[in-house]
């Protein structure tokens, strides 16, 4: 079959469609909405999963994050329950043991935080004062917007300096020269040396930072505020001694991440009688998110594929009606020498043209819907290039598959009986 003959058959199919414009339009609607829904649903699913994957990857695939958590009241010793001072969480010794005894550990970053009211002139904002080391900014990569981050000199000199997040700087120091300003954090003056952009947590992905963070050297925090934190609870105040709220651990290679995580958990269970810590493994979260993304795309694609199936049934229905209407035409073509294969090919080309046009319109509509979703709701969407090719290919394939039965029915018509048809 030559290209010229296929082109001639395609023109015949278009001519037949133009003879019944409304019927052809209604027939292609199923394919249009099917293709558009496949693209739109995959774009929404891919956008959401990519955002989660991006957030997890920013935590560092080679990093482990340990958190202190308050154990359940019934698991605490009686002496601790009766005391006004709650003792729990990660210890400085834990950080030392992890750094020196766990294979594959490159470095560890101790983190301690507390809520403090912060004043700048007549503006007040409650910040989370995060006491850490300069390595924090290497393990948790955040864009530097102004000034600098903490340095080894800050740790040695023990000067009260801090690095604010963009949110805190805008709320507290709006309209002023931020870097170099003095802010009062818990009645202690701190000099602002830099501004960083924070990454907000979303869903199950918990990032180590918050929008209201202010970073300061760990020795400065211990000297100025001590190790005991007063926590305001409903109707009362409680004192807590949590040496470290967080420990970030950098592992040498991806292959060593999960063995190191198991070793750390084993070590912590040995020295902690209560479950007052929690381990987060971004690499495991990354793998789970990738698996969830694949499953999500398959489910969404299958649901959207139902629309394409409905569109295919519509094409089959209309082509069966077309066979009845064109019975005499088929008889004339058979009488002047057309073979059954020619009749089959003619109908298949016509259904392919019909579904192909519906597929093209569906592609345009499917690319518009994610843009509107992002513009109106702010939800991130991403259209995978393969989804466009896949959707259009399926639409053409549906035209062939669902047009095959009507084509065979037309080819099986007896020429003499077809010529007698009125």
Element layout with pairings:
Layout: H1 3-19, H2 21-58, E1 63-68, H3 78-82, E2 85-87, H4 92-101, E3 105-120, E4 123-132, H5 136-139, E5 144-147, H6 152-157, E6 161-165, H7 166-173, E7 182-185, E8 188-196, E9 213-217, H8 218-225, E10 228-233, E11 236-241, E12 246-251, H9 257-271, E13 277-280, H10 282-325, H11 327-335, H12 340-377, H13 385-411, H14 415-420
Parallel strand pairs: 2-11, 4-9, 6-8
Antiparallel strand pairs: 1-12, 1-13, 3-4, 3-7, 3-12, 5-8, 6-9, 7-8, 10-11
Helix pairs in contact: 1-12, 2-10, 2-12, 2-13, 10-13, 12-13
Quick tags:
422 residues, alpha+beta, 2 domains, 13 strands, 20% strand
Describe what you observe in this structure.
- By secondary structure, this protein is of the alpha+beta class.
- It has 2 domains: 186 residues, no CATH class; 206 residues, no CATH class.
- Helix content is 56%, strand content 20%.
- A 6-stranded mixed barrel has the order 3-4-9-6-8-7. The protein has a 3-stranded mixed sheet with strand order 2-11-10, with no helix packed on it.
- Helix 10 runs parallel beside helix 13.
- The longest helix is centred in the C-terminal third of the chain and has 44 residues.
- 38% of the residues are buried.
